[in-house]
Design goal:
By secondary structure, the protein is mostly helical. The protein has one domain. Helix content is about 65%, strand content about 0%. Helix 1 packs antiparallel against helix 4 and helix 2 runs antiparallel to helix 3. About 25% of the residues are buried.
């Protein structure tokens, strides 16, 4: 990657890489819990399904605190954009945990079609684009 192609400093790009890694790890956990929950549901096991839904919500609720110290040095506008999006995910997940949401932890994180990217994956793509970060 040629850092001259980005409007961000090398330090910012390194931070964005770390943010992307945290988000990818979270997306992977989210996907694993989602899959395990769907398997349980297909067997008619509602208790394990609910447990996996709560686990999905938990990884999303933890996300803002995982990113807090990492994104501190980013330019304010970029930092606020990331924080706003991730906090929005966390608020919806917390509503589910608190029993105020009956739709499960979709958080709009599930694409409309099977192969669609969810909102978390789209955020990852956007950050990678902004920082000109390769896969």
């Amino acid at each position: 990657m040629d850092s001259n192609d980005s409007v961000y400093s090398d330090k910012d790009i390194n931070v964005l890489r770390e943010v992307v890694q945290i988000l990818k790890n979270t997306a992977k956990k989210f996907g694993t819990f989602d899959y395990e929950g769907e398997v349980a549901l297909s067997k008619g096991d509602l208790k394990p399904f609910k447990k996996k839904q709560l686990a999905k919500a938990g990884v999303i609720v933890e996300l803002p605190s995982k990113l807090e110290n990492v994104i501190g040095g980013l330019p304010d506008e970029l930092k606020q954009e990331i924080q706003s999006e991730v906090r929005g995910f966390a608020v919806e997940a917390q509503k589910y945990i608190n029993g105020h949401s009956f739709l499960g932890v979709g958080l709009s994180l599930m694409g409309d079609e099977v192969n669609d990217k969810n909102d978390l994956e789209m955020l990852i793509d956007r950050i990678m684009f902004l920082g000109n970060i390769d896969q």
